[in-house]
Structure formats: structure tokens, C-alpha cells
Amino acid sequence: MKQSxxxxxxxxxxxxxxxxxxxxxxxxxxVLGLAAIPAVLSLPEAGPLVxxxxxxxxxxxxxxxxLPATYEPILMLYGRLYSPVVVGLLGIGGTIxxxxxxxxxxxxxxxxxxxxxxxxxxxLAWVVRKFNRSPFFTIWLCSWSPLPYWAVRFLSPLARYxxxxxxxxxxxxxxxxxxxxxxxxxxxxxEIGWLLWITGASIAVAVAVWWYxxxxxxxxxxxxVTFNR
Length: 229
Prior knowledge:
By secondary structure, this protein is an all-alpha fold. The chain has helices spanning about 1-15, 20-40, 45-60, 70-80, 85-110, 115-120, 120-135, 135-145, 150-160, 165-185, 190-220. It has one domain (about 1-220).
């Protein structure tokens, strides 16, 4: 019985869970959960911090477009409970892990023959040339400002910008942003209930938009391709 259970666990460990990012998130979450058990048993106060890192990994993963404005209230909530610098360090650790996975996934996608035509298009070549004028600054700027980070998430591997520099620019831009929102939770004396309500509402709106778009895609006539806006 024990041997069969170990064999099943071994199969699950070797099995690929979706694409590179999903597989890395599932495996990373499992490893983090197992590694955190001794720490939580000896220091129960660390339990919520482990949960925060797991939330960071999942919120910054493939479901990030479905969870707009969700992570900031979580940062503010944890900023009430722990040092904003600690929250920022744990948050940036989970973020860098996911972005490392994203970089290699998109690099693999762009190297495939399936995307050869759009990859070699004149318009995309023009965008890449613009990006290559100042890639480090562009990544850093998008990491902390309202500018969309997803743009450099695609452009960096497409332009074959070194992953180490990409992650370093992300760290320099994203870490101060995480610390700021965590500290904002201590400065802005809004009730915790409101933070939870804002987080839940943003998730509900994202799910509603996803459901509407899915129904729209299912009801579209055959041969009509719908695109996310």
C-alpha cells in the first residue's frame, strides 16, 4: 500500500501541469508549502507570511489579467500586520520567481515556428527596435508606473534581452512599489473590512468579465474569431 502511494506521488511529481508557467507555479507552491511546514510548526506567526508568498505567486501568474487591482489591497492588509519592508521582500521574491518562468515561456513561444509570421512582421520589428533603445529603463519604468508591465513581459524575451537584466530591472522597479502599498496600509487608516471588500469586489468583477467574454465567444458564429480587448 505504501509503495503504491509513493509510486503515485512519483508519477504526479513527474507529470507536467499545463505550460511552463503553470507547471512552475504548481510545483513551486508545493515545494514552498512543504518547506514551510517546519517553520510554521516552530513559529506559527509565520503562517500568514507563507500564505502571502503563495498568493503573490498565483496573483502574478497566468490568472493576473483576471485579477486587476487585487494585489494592492492585499499588500495594504499585510502592511498592517508586518513590516512593509518584510512584505516587500517576500512579495518581490514571489514576483521574480513568476517572472523568471514567464520570460522562459514567452522565449520558447517566440522561438517556435507557429509564431514565426507575427514575430517577423514589420510592425513588431519596429516595436522591438524602439524597446532596444533603452530596454533596462523601459522594464524598470513599467515595473512601478501605471504603464502596462505585460508589454515588456513579451518584448524582453522577444528581443532576447538577458533574463538576469530583465529580472534586475523588475526588482528595482517593483520592490519600491510593493513597499509603498504595504506602507500605505499603515498610513491610510481604512478599516480592514473595507480592504477585504475591495479585494473581493475586484475578483467578482474580473470573474463577471471573464464569464461574459466566454459566453460571447461561445455564441459567436462559426468562423468568427473574437479577441480580448
